[in-house]
Specification:
168 residues; mainly beta; 8-stranded antiparallel barrel
Length: 168
């Protein structure tokens, strides 16, 4: 039964990832994910503006190169697609652990000014919390994450989760 549920959830996530990928550039035309512990490495084309939703800060909607620090110190690159509706953001992403395979994740979050807080869920049965802070130009974010059992440590964790906008 457990495998059936896992396979069914995997199929649903795959369909969501494929559907969200239909509107983004093919991976061969985009830069590979870059570590984003400092200044953003990738910027949108000159003259590109980031949409500003009703809440007055740049939108989180778009495609992002993300990198996060694992609890073992390794860094994991990923590409995500975020959609924004009012003050709610939904996201889908995929990532690969060498020797283990490719996994998918999704997030649900709430926007308050330039901050996004929410919960992530991953196909390797990981669930946790995150907080992202959007840069003033809306083209990068810095953040932190913790596993669900460590929610009280979100403000002090060294586990970063950063991103750079690929497509506004």
């Amino acid at each position: 039964m457990h495998k059936s549920v896992f396979v069914l959830l995997g199929c649903i996530v795959c369909v969501m990832v494929i559907a969200s990928g239909c509107t983004s550039p093919s991976p061969s035309t985009t830069a590979p994910p870059a570590a984003t512990t400092g200044t953003p490495v990738v910027s949108p084309p000159h003259g590109t503006t980031t949409p500003v939703p009703a809440h007055g800060t740049p939108s989180w909607a778009g495609t992002w190169n993300m990198t996060w620090r694992e609890t073992n110190g390794n860094q994991t690159p990923s590409v995500a697609t975020f959609t924004e509706a009012g003050n709610t953001v939904y996201g889908n992403y995929s990532y690969t652990y060498p020797g283990e395979g490719t996994f998918t994740g999704y997030l649900n979050a709430t926007v308050r000014e330039n901050t996004l807080t929410g919960t992530y869920y991953e196909s390797d049965d990981d669930v946790g919390y995150f907080i992202f802070v959007l840069s003033a130009d809306g083209n990068s974010f810095t953040g932190r994450w913790v596993h669900a059992t460590n929610q009280s440590e979100l403000n002090t964790t060294v586990n970063f989760w950063n991103g750079v906008r690929m497509v506004p």
